[in-house]
C-alpha cells in the first residue's frame, strides 16, 4: 500500500538551508508499523517493533500454562465426580482453545437434545370407558339426594329441575367418548329392535326406578319443553357428525365433541314413564323443518319406540298420525323410509296381547288411534295396482287386518261409529271417483284394472 503523507508549510522566518523548501513530511505510526518487514523464522516482532530471536519459546510457555490450567480444572472435576479420566469426560484434550469451545458447545447441544428425548415420555393412554362401566357406577341413593335438593332449590321451575336432572347423568357419562356410543351408525345400520333399549339397558334398576318416580311428579308442560330441548341437543349433534363426515371416505361415526349418552338416556326415561308427552309435542315435530329428513326420522322413530314401551295405544296413535302419512309424501317412495315405518308398526303389533289392547283402546280421549284418513292411506299402500307393487307391499298386507280392525272398532250404532261410517263413506266415494272398486265399508278395497 502506498505511503500516505501530508505536507505542512513551515512558518519559520529564517533562511531556508535544507532542500525541503519549508515543507515537512508527517507519517502515521500505526501504518508505519504495518510497513515493518516480516521477521525471519528465527525471530518475531514484539510490541516495540524490534525482532527477538527464539520467540517461539514464549508461545510454548503460554501453551504450557494453558495446558496446566486445563489439567487443574480436570483434576477438580475428577475429584468432584469421582472419575479418573476427567479430561476425557469433559472433552479437555490437548486442543487449541477454539477447538475446545466448539466441541463443548456441540456436546452441550447434543446433551440438551438427549435430555429432551428422555423428557418426552409417552403419556399412558386413558382407558376407554364404556356406557355399561359408567352406568354401573351411578348410585341410586346419591341420585335421590341430588333430585331432592334440586326439587327444593328450584321448586317453581320444573324446566330447570329437569335440566339439572339431565346434567347429573351428563357428568356420570362424561368419560364415555363418542366412539363408545356411535348412535348415528347404530341408527343407520341396525333395526329398530336392536336400538330400542339403547342406552337404557345398561342402567341399574334402582337408578331407573328412582328416576322415573321423580319424573312422574313433573308436569306435562315442563316435560314437553324438556323433550324438545333434549331432542334439539341430539339434532345439533347429528348436524355436527354429518358435517364432519362430509368428504370422508369412511362416512362413519365421528367422535362427538360431547357424549350424547345422557340425552338419549333421560329422553327414553321420560317417554317411557309419560308417553303422552310425545303426543303433546307431535304438532311441533310435524311442522318444524328442523325435525324433517331421513336421519332425523330415525331419531323420531326411536322416540316413538320408547313411547310404545310405556303405552302401545300411544305408540300406534303416533304411528298413524305422524309416520304413516309420510308414505303419501315425497319421502314415501324411499325404500328406507317405508322400511322404518313398517318396522315401527310391526314392533307395536308383535307385543304380547297387542291386538286385544289396541282394539279395546281404539278410541283415546275422543280420538281414534286409526282415524278414517289413516285407514284410507293404509288401503292405498296395501292394495296398489299390480304394476305398483313393491317389496314393502307384502309387509303392509301382513299388518293390515289388525289395523283395519282397530280402525273400525266401536259399538255398532253408537254416535261415534255413525260419525266414523260417514267419514269412511266419503272416502269410499272419493276412491271410486279415482278408479277404485270398494267392496264394502268393512271389507277390503282393491284397485280395479
UniProtKB/TrEMBL annotation:
Residues 28-37 have a biased composition (Basic residues). Signal peptide: none annotated. GO terms for cellular component: endoplasmic reticulum; Golgi apparatus. Residues 1-50, 93-125 are annotated as: Disordered. It comes from the Eukaryota. Residues 106-118 have a biased composition (Basic and acidic residues). Residues 8-22 have a biased composition (Polar residues). PANTHER family: F26K24.17 PROTEIN, TRANSMEMBRANE PROTEIN 214. This is Uncharacterized protein LOC107791788 isoform X1. It comes from Nicotiana tabacum (Common tobacco). The lineage of its organism: Eukaryota, Viridiplantae, Streptophyta, Embryophyta, Tracheophyta. The gene is LOC107791788.
